[in-house]
Write a structure and sequence with these properties.
It catalyses: uridine(1498) in 16S rRNA + S-adenosyl-L-methionine = N(3)-methyluridine(1498) in 16S rRNA + S-adenosyl-L-homocysteine + H(+). The structure is a single chain. The protein is of the alpha/beta class. It has two domains: 3-68, Ribosomal Protein L25, Chain P, CATH 2.40.240.20; 77-247, Alpha/beta knot (3-Layer(aba) Sandwich), CATH 3.40.1280.10. It contains seven helices and eleven strands. The strands form two sheets. It has a six-stranded parallel beta sheet, sandwiched between helices. The radius of gyration is 20 Å and the shape is globular. The mean pLDDT is 91.
Length: 252
């Protein structure tokens, strides 16, 4: 069944409306008719089974049938801090990390990021990434729409994550350190409802200065297995492991 995220302003007590791209998808791509049912997600994270009452040339009008009790979200709040990668890798990272349950994605202007976003184009790039996150959320039947932030500086990142309960930085040098604790050791400390930040470097990784800044802000260095992972692979490794431990075992 098709699923759509609807902005707060289009929700009434028992009725709602769909406009814009979602209207086009319903009316012109899916060619739905009055009487067809879809699932609509409220910004609060609640999902509702709805029935189409009317379709005009600009809006789809619907009525709520019932609230659904979908339990599909990770039991924690997780923010991915991603060093800006080359090409379209960030689009892929946003799509896949959304499917794996991330709540927020913060692009990071790391010292070794080859790509430097033009200030005038940042908003348009983030708008596209947010659209990718929305489509991935609908495809994976999520009830919460992740946010994609404008690129942050190091100081902005350290400020925004100051009160997080768990903070990690993936640093390739930990892979070469025999005494490094295994990832499970750190993740076993996480409890349901807590907040987590994971920082992933761009191609080439973080500089020593950046790592020192993360350490000073109480980020813990972690290893993601014994091999060096690409910047687009590392967040998927972490998120998949986190999902397994928190959702498929009785660890927490």
């Amino acid at each position: 069944m098709q699923r759509y995220f609807i902005n707060e302003e289009y929700w009434g007590e028992n009725e709602l409306a769909i406009v814009g791209d979602d209207y086009h998808h319903i009316a012109n791509v899916m060619r739905m008719k009055p009487g067809d049912q879809i699932i609509c997600n409220h910004p609060s994270g609640h999902a509702y089974l709805c029935i189409i009452d009317q379709i005009d040339d600009q809006q789809v009008y619907l009525s709520k049938l019932e609230r659904l009790d979908d339990q599909v979200e990770l039991p924690i709040q997780i923010t991915l801090i991603q060093g800006l990668p080359k090409g379209d890798k960030l689009e892929w990272i946003v799509q896949k990390s959304t499917e794996l349950g991330v709540d927020s994605i913060i692009p990071f202007n790391s010292a070794r990021s080859i790509v430097k976003w033009d200030g005038k184009k940042q908003a348009k790039k983030v708008e596209r990434l947010q659209k990718i996150a929305k489509e991935a959320s609908e495809q994976s039947h999520r009830t919460i729409l992740p946010t994609v932030e404008l690129p942050h500086s190091m100081q902005q990142i350290l400020t925004s994550t100051k009160n997080f309960e768990h903070k990690f930085v993936a640093y390739e040098e930990t892979t070469r350190t025999v005494s490094t604790k295994k990832l499970q050791t750190y993740l076993a400390q996480i409890k349901h409802g807590q907040s987590i930040a994971i920082a992933i470097g761009p191609e080439g990784g973080f500089t020593e200065k950046e790592i020192e800044q993360f350490y000073d802000a109480n980020f813990q260095p972690i290893r993601l297995g014994p091999r060096i992972l690409r910047t687009e692979t590392a967040p998927m490794y972490f998120l998949s492991t986190l999902s397994y431990l928190l959702e498929e075992t009785n660890l927490s």
